[in-house]
Write a structure and sequence with these properties.
Strand content: 5-15%
Order of helices and strands: HEEHH
Oligomer: single chain
Largest sheet: 2 strands, antiparallel
Strand order of the largest sheet: 1-2
Number of helices: 3
Number of strands: 2
Shape: flat
């Protein structure tokens, strides 16, 4: 693959990821709703039709509630795990004290996971 093709793929990937993030963030911002089910409240977001009072006039099945809760838990766990790993890596590199070693190790880690904003932790 040529450099030109590689750059084109990276550019298109970046546009796709940015588009997905904008749609995800817009959905979270503009369509939040809450359902009370079996003494618990599930807050999530998606486009929905409103009734005459402005409330959501739809329900979810038990399987949908489990799926929404599972996806929320997976997202929170993944962000927490990534943040903890990056913090420990930074502490480990700081303890070693060799700038060249730190830069090589951190550079290799960043290349491996190709972190970029968002949602890369801010302390990198």
């Amino acid at each position: 693959m040529s450099v030109k093709e590689t750059n084109r793929i990276k550019r298109l990937s970046g546009i796709l990821i940015l588009t997905l993030f904008v749609f995800y963030y817009s959905g979270l911002t503009f369509f939040p709703l809450a359902h009370t089910h079996e003494h618990s409240t599930l807050v999530h977001s998606h486009p929905y039709k409103k009734d005459s009072n402005g409330n959501a006039n739809h329900t979810h099945t038990q399987a949908e509630f489990v799926l929404i809760a599972g996806l929320s838990h997976l997202l929170v766990t993944a962000v927490a795990f990534t943040t903890i790993v990056m913090a420990l890596l930074n502490l480990f590199c700081w303890e070693i004290g060799s700038d060249s070693f730190n830069n090589k190790l951190l550079g290799a880690f960043k290349e491996l996971f190709n972190l970029r904003s968002p949602p890369s932790p801010s302390f990198l």
